[in-house]
Specification:
With 174 residues, the chain is an alpha+beta fold. It is 21% helix and 30% strand.
Length: 174
């Protein structure tokens, strides 16, 4: 018998006021920051030039703020948007504390609003507020995010698991 694994929240599971402290933290490496900065063609030298960072008021390289936003958003996916139709927007993005290479980011989200979708009967609209904290509890980023999320049982929500030629129980029998 196959047991159902973690399948995330569907629209019906979101309740205004619920708070999710997301289970996974992520330490930012120098490679993460350098690659993201190169990928996004960000030429601000504070993100990749050690000498510029050393001479700045921070005394070291700053992590690209768009990487901070992306990582904190990513930390929320398993709890918030695993069954997303589409992200509809990020609003009120604030960066109250810098992030440095070696910092570990954590995320916490509160459900702010829910409503049925007017255009898609198999989905609803959620608005959440998220903050990213570093290992010391300093708030590094805050934002509101609006997303359209599938309702439970919506045909479009199904992501089929591939069917193997041989059942796993036969592979490990004996």
């Amino acid at each position: 018998m196959t047991a159902v694994g973690w399948v995330d929240r569907y629209f019906e599971d979101f309740k205004v006021g619920d708070v999710y402290q997301h289970a996974v933290g992520r330490t930012i490496s120098e490679a993460d920051n350098t690659w993201f900065t190169l990928l996004t063609v960000n030429t601000q030298q504070l993100h990749f030039n050690r000498e510029c960072g050393r001479q700045s008021e921070f005394g070291r390289i700053l992590v690209n703020s768009c990487l901070t936003l992306a990582v904190v958003t990513g930390l929320t996916v398993a709890d918030v948007t695993q069954h997303v139709v589409a992200n509809l927007g990020w609003d009120d993005v604030r960066l109250p504390h810098p992030v440095f290479v070696g910092d570990t980011l954590w995320a916490e989200t509160v459900v702010l609003d829910t409503r049925p979708s007017g255009s898609r009967p198999g989905a609803g609209i959620i608005q959440v507020g998220t903050r990213g904290l570093n290992q010391d509890g300093d708030v590094c980023v805050t934002f509101r995010r609006t997303a359209m999320v599938h309702r439970r049982g919506a045909d479009e929500a199904a992501v089929p698991f591939p069917e193997a030629a041989t059942p796993i129980t036969e592979v490990f029998a004996g």
